[in-house]
Amino acid sequence: MSASITTTAERGAVREGGRPSSGGEPVLEIRDLSVDYGYGDDPTHVLRKVSLTLNRGEVLGLAGESGCGKSTLAYAATRLLAPPGLITSGEVWLTGRDGTRADLLRLSDRELRSTRWQDIAIVFQGAMSSLNPVYRIGRQIVDGILAHRPGLSRSAAAERAAELLELVGIPADRLRSYPHQLSGGMRQRVMIAMALALEPQVLIMDEPTTALDVVMQRQILEQVMELRDRLGFSVVLITHDVSLLVEVADRIAIMYAGEIVEQADAGDVYRRPRHPYAHGLLGSFPPLHGPRRELSGIPGSPPDLSRLPQGCPFAPRCPHATDVCREARPVLGTTRSAEHGRLVSCHLHDPELRDVLPAELAR
Amino acid sequence: MKFLARRLAFYALTAWAAITMNFFVPRLLPGDPVTALIGRMQGRIDSNAEHSLRVLFGLDENTSMWEQYVQYWGLLLKGDLGLSFTHFPTPVAQIVTQSLPWTVGLVGVATIIAFVVGTLIGTAIGWRRGTWADSLLPVSTFFSAVPYFWLGLITITVFAVNLRWFPSNGSYDRGLLPGLTWEFVSSVGYYGFLPALTVVLSSVAGWILGMRNMMVTVSSEDYVTVAHAKGLPSRQVVLGYAARNAVLPQVSSFALSLGFVVGGTLIMEMVFSYQGIGYTLYQAVSTHDYPLMQGCFLVITLSVLVANMVADFVYVALDPRTRQES
């Protein structure tokens, strides 16, 4: 499942990627997903052959700076991408509860509709705007339930909705409230309750706490993690807050310019980053524990996806870049010491190209 | 309920202001009604009758403005709007009540049709934007861009004069007795078809464009994406989530256009010689018939107010965010 891009195919072959394993069977497998924005002759390639696996029961964190394609990945994988976004290639395999596997991108509209919410539920970025302003929240939870359980009576669905609200700590009489009568934090809880209505296998959360204050962020995420322990769903958590991910995620994938550049267990990414970008990203946050250190940040600014350099997209900002970085695009493969469950997309890890790894990436 | 009461009070106040203005404005105009009437009748009224006319108009006594105002209200509440000059001595109230139903019936129905059809088409185009349906837009905009009287005249030329499918003027077959018979009602429909068609054609583009644009805006709202993600049937997403929110601004414009039904149909009724309130107003203006003008203005003002009030309440029913709780 390693990505290969024609210009660097020969190099990619050197480090044929192994699958990162953290136990469990895969529940959602994204393979070589590519997305373009724009239909013209010169579309912007926003995702380029992204592969990502979510295992059953795990929390997978997806991090990266704004505009790197995190949300696009979530929308594309669930086929919610709005025009002018266009999926140009890839597969998204979902393993059902009974073990059957289906490619979401090739389902008929009807099959897709029945999969949605039932297997994959999403909590979106805008807590404030995710609820229909003209319907009571009870009705909005109920219509999702009834769309998938046509036999269920309205009152039974309403009971379920009340249960769900209690689950996220909102009194059930709030079912009769309109969205504008709730605070931002409550609305996001309602969204989470709504997402859990059909006990989905996968919960995708796209920056679920962006618009909320820090205390509320923590409360909500803790609640989700607690619910996950109880109900056993898998989570894809998209955020630019790496320190948050380090705490709650089992595995972290770091994206840069529409590609995944590093993927590893959360603790490994935090303590021993292997990609210069991941290292820079971690250097941009104050550490949660341990001695104080200088925040370094990453020089330069995020790349323009419509004018990416020929080689590694991070090369212009990378302190270790060499000629080969500027000419050939690296692919996701094992690290230099072939660590278990780790993938990185960087020429520094190719022994044929570089003799030694910079010390900061070799800890 | 408290909200409704507050709105009602507001509209009562507005109505009072409008009626008061309607009382004062003609009194600020130069000239006096008796001389005007005698002038209009061009010698058919004996100048000796001047005094009796003054008595008739209540101008013989030297009443103060305030007394006149109180009297005006008293007469108004009895439904007395005075006597028309042109149709002397027919009461204005009678002329207005005769012409109003024609306008409300014809233009009201046409406006509702234009709103419903336009909103539905707009919903479809907005939802499936970028398809062939988009080409409906310039076609419909063309009809609203051409001057209305021209559209009316062309329609008469083509369908009434050349093809002889429809009558060119009037509101029903004069050989029939008005009444609730099938013959009469179908005749009204037949005579009203061309004027209604032109009203619909000229106004439907606005509804289509408004709804389409709102649909495009609303379709990219997060809650519509959420509705998709919930796996709701497309029909439910389009109607329950996208169109349900997109229609809100349409409802406000609809209310305003209902208000203009009574006042804004002047040209249509002139072109088609349709005996509605617009035609009456046109006659009143061109013959300096002040009492009739005043009556028409009053009816127009009140109908705008009533339409706004209805729209206000409908909007509150449709959008929970406008319900103030105190």
From TrEMBL, chain A:
Domain annotation ABC transporter: ranges: 28-282
InterPro entries assigned to the protein according to its UniProt record, in alphabetical order: AAA+_ATPase (IPR003593), ABC_Ni/Peptide_Import (IPR050388), ABC_transporter-like_ATP-bd (IPR003439), ABC_transporter-like_CS (IPR017871), Oligopep_ABC_C (IPR013563), P-loop_NTPase (IPR027417)
Domain of life from the UniProt record: Bacteria
Keywords from the named record: ATP-binding, Cell membrane, Membrane, Nucleotide-binding, Transport
UniProt subcellular location: Cell membrane
Membrane topology: Peripheral membrane protein
Pfam families the UniProt entry points to: ABC_tran (PF00005), oligo_HPY (PF08352)
GO molecular function annotation: ATP binding; ATP hydrolysis activity
GO CC terms, sorted: plasma membrane
One BP term from GO: peptide transport
Principal location listed in the UniProt entry: membrane
Region ranges (Disordered): 1-26
KW Nucleotide-binding (keyword) present: yes
PROSITE patterns associated with the record: ABC_TRANSPORTER_1, ABC_TRANSPORTER_2
Alphabetized SUPFAM superfamilies for the sequence: P-loop containing nucleoside triphosphate hydrolases
Family as reported in the entry's similarity comment: Belongs to the ABC transporter superfamily.
Cross-referenced NCBIfam families: oligo_HPY
Protein name listed in UniProt: Dipeptide/oligopeptide/nickel ABC transporter ATP-binding protein
Upper taxonomic lineage: Bacteria, Bacillati, Actinomycetota, Actinomycetes, Micrococcales
Automatic annotation (TrEMBL), chain B:
Domain annotation ABC transmembrane type-1: ranges: 100-311
Signal peptide start and end residues: none
Record bears the keyword Membrane: yes
Disulfide bond recorded as keyword: no
Transmembrane segment boundaries: 102-127, 148-168, 188-209, 254-277, 297-318
Primary site of residence: membrane
GO cellular component term, pick one: plasma membrane
GO-annotated biological processes: transmembrane transport
The entry's keywords: Membrane, Transmembrane, Transmembrane helix, Transport
Membrane topology: Multi-pass membrane protein
Organism superkingdom: Bacteria
A UniProt-annotated Pfam family: BPD_transp_1
Localization terms from the record: Cell membrane; Membrane
Family note: Belongs to the binding-protein-dependent transport system permease family.
Protein name as catalogued: Peptide ABC transporter permease
Origin organism lineage: Bacteria, Bacillati, Actinomycetota, Actinomycetes, Micrococcales
